[in-house]
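Input.
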Amino acid sequence: MAALEALTRVREDGAYANLVLPPILAAASLDRRDAGFATALTYGALRLAGRYDAILALCVDRPLAQLDGVVLDALRLGAHQLLGMRVPAHAAVSATVELAAHAAGRGASSFVNAVLRKVSAKDLDAWLAELRAAAPDELAALAAIESHPVWIVKALRQALVVSGRDPSELEDLLAADNADPEVVLCARPGLVETERLAAEARRAVGDEPRLGDTSPCAVVLAGGDPGRIPAVRDSRAGVEDEGSQLVALMASEPAITGRDERWLDMCAGPGGKAALLGARAAQRGARLVANEVAPHRARLVEAAVRAIPDGVVEIRCGDGRQIGRDEPGRYDRVLVDAPCTGLGSLRRRPEARWRRDPKDVTELAALQRELLLSALAAVRRGGLVAYVTCSPHALETSLVVKDALSRATRGGMSIETLHAGDAATRIAPRPPAGADRAQLQLWPHLDGTDAMFCALLRRDR
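Output.
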């Protein structure tokens, strides 16, 4: 019932699984094993909804859009147990039929029973072969098999090409979006050492952690509830992807000439990067302005930075697009972690791929350009701007940078692009796969991180 309730909330209320599932599990008083099963079932059914819908469409006598929403959710849960989990077929069908009877009535349960018996008649490889044979082309086949909208498949292929990668990596990239991500902690510098955080994590969750490959601040867990770890509870550490940690450090670590005491995080919510930057600022005698346009996200920033010494971080609530006009040349370092489609973190946000569409990219790219231009105006001559997105889409990454630099040059600025790959190599324990390129693009299938993008820009005039 917990998994079905979560899927219903996601479908009907536009909720996010990572936010609604924990309280549902807590209310159900499930033990660790059952909670783990419900979590895997929920996330798997959401991530692979496209694959399962394509299979279910071959097993029903009507369009899936005509099915009651709760029945379709139950069928997806059943399909994932049959084809994506090690659940015996009779147990998966029986449990799902009982679930459908409880949620939608006996008539629905008979229908669910008939459909899932058809699904169980073939194994996953046979179904995927059938989907591939039915697809009009290779990209459509990958969209169905790897459960991504076709437009995202095309965008990710283009992103690989733009980043100098072989487009044959596309299938591995899509598959990585469907894998369960590890839990990654960030040991905020000066507040807790990585070894101490690893020891706290070992005692709290019972699993053996490891240090990160991409961020020197990362401690990686196989699973468990990070909220049980003391350093996480008191914000000396936080849950943050290794790629996110690396790009934040890329804003703070490259050397600049002259003053280095005024830092700005232009789009600071929900606060992970701001907390890492604030911790580094405290060590370096600098001050950080953490700006966030949304009041509720500004409150999240406040919670994230509460362990940092008083006076280091100033939290503001305002439109980052106005900062360059209101405070020209004030800052030595500026991080622009721009609002984006989030196509780089699909493995962590399983419902996101079904909610985005191409027009979102166009609208966000316009906002991203404005924010980057504001950052270039807000940084002093000789200062550094790090432009970051959690999306590899070319319209949100390299093309935004290219357009903003062109406009800045026409406005009389002189901007130098620094080699982000070199900067990442100097920071990361293991160089990222794209470290040879001037603009850094991380990849889940190569680096084990979210697909973070980072460009480093220095204003010379």
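The first helix runs from residue 2 to 13.
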